[in-house]
Amino acid sequence: MSDNVLTEREFAKIIAENGGRVFRVGGCVRDSFMGITPKDIDFSVVGMVKKNFKMLFPKAEECGKSFPVFRLAIDGIKREVAFARTEWKVGSGYKGFRVSAKPKITIEEDLFRRDTTVNSMAQDSLTGEIIDPFQGQEDIRAKVLRATSQHFSDDPMRALRLAGQSARFGFAIDSATLLFARDVKEELIHEPVERMIAELGKVVAEASEPGRFFKVLAETQLLEVTFPEIAELPVDDFEKAMAGLNLVAKATSSSKLRFASLGLVMDQMRLARWNQRMTLPGDWLDAALRVNQITGFLEETTPEKIVDTIGNLRRGSLKIEELDLIITAAKLKILTLGPLKAAMVLPQGESVPKTLQGKEIGEWLRKKHIEAIAKQLNSNS
After folding, report:
1. Any signal peptide, and if so, which residues (predicted)?
2. 26 and 119 co-located in one domain
3. Taking CA atoms, which of 153, 309, 332, 338 is between 20 and 30 Å from 82?
């Protein structure tokens, strides 16, 4: 091994010399075909028992409970290495599976248990051979998500990930797969909210059209059991919220600002109820609450409101330029505050009277700022 760093090729060669094979699997193979640099590279080992693997790689950290999964440094980065496995449903939820990870299980059998065809491809780490038994490459070219098999609905979380993939990749969803997704509604109700917020986090951070995530969930009748606070919105408000979310997503990659755009439609009580049920990231929630409060406050603009709003924004998690970005991206008929803040300066040569003290200074400055904003508004009209 060169410089004591185990490379992928060396890893695969050791496995091959001991009767097994190593494959890249899942999202990293899909991303490579889509021209995306994979964030994570996961491996699947075929034709080997756990005991032999641990002897060959004593530094591998075992982390799987129901089936063999290891963390092993490959190319200097800790990667997940799982043994090829089959699974069948014996109970409810994502934990209700019986798993087999015997050496005779083939890579094709391992791929069969996966959710969609674009995720059911593998690449031999030694030879580069592509294993694509379910036409995943073809579906990538067609920009469609299709269930690998009817077992898609065995795991209710697959429906949520399906909506997330559609939003992140901009792919359509095969009609039969939409029906499979609808079938998981009763089980999805009982899934941990932490898993739902994790998928939402990926969508808000990565999707070019995050509104598609909620629209797919609505189409599959799953929105009411996953994000009921959005499902309860009247149709017009739902469409407005999704349009605003997508517009802001085009303008920024900030998860905080993307989520905050929902505050253009969702009121304080609804956002607070969402957070109570499913703890949201603190900066997301604060920014969304401020967007809702401030944009409503500024619908009828006065110099006093503008000065007070600028003062409040100086103390919160939402900056003036961030609010302006949301206002501009969502095409709201509300004044942006950045130029007005710049106008809040004392006339040249004027300073705070030395006779003022304490609160008097703040009151005097507020009066002067209001006068400056009024002057700026009049010059704009």
Report:
1. none
2. yes
3. 153
Tally of CB atoms within 10 A around 205: 14
Neighbour count for residue 129 (Cβ, 10 Å): 11
Order of all β-strands in the sheet with 42-46: 61-62, 69-74, 77-83, 42-46, 21-25, 122-124, 130-131
From 122, 120, 118, select the one nearest 145 (Cα to Cα): 118
CA 69 to chain CA centroid, nearest Å: 25
Nearest to 296 by CA among 274, 269, 266: 266
Question: pLDDT of 295-323, one tens digit each?
Answer: 988 888 888 989 988 888 887 789 999 99
Establish if 260 belongs to a structural domain.
no
SS3 123: strand
Is position 253 within any domain? Answer: no
Q: What is the CATH number of the domain that holds 124?
A: 3.30.460.10
Instruction: Report yes or no: 203 and 209 within 8 Å, Cβ to Cβ.
Output: no
Say whether 267 sits in a helix, a strand or coil: coil
Q: What is the pTM of this model?
A: 0.87
Tokens of 1: 């091994």
Q: Which domain holds residue 153?
A: 143-226
Domain boundary among 191, 226, 261: 226
Residue whose tokens read 């006065």: 302
- The DSSP call for residue 118 is G
**pLDDT tens figures, 66-91:** 677 899 999 999 999 999 987 655 55
- Decide: 65 and 162 in contact? Cβ < 8 Å: no
Q: What is the pLDDT of residues 77-131, one digit of tens each?
A: 999 999 998 765 555 555 555 666 677 889 999 999 999 999 999 999 999 999 9
Q: How many domains does the chain have?
A: 2
Say if 178 falls within a structural domain.
yes
Pairing of strands 77-83, 42-46: parallel
CB within 8 A of 185, min separation 6: which ones?
221, 222, 225
**Is there a single domain that holds both residue 2 and residue 129?**
yes
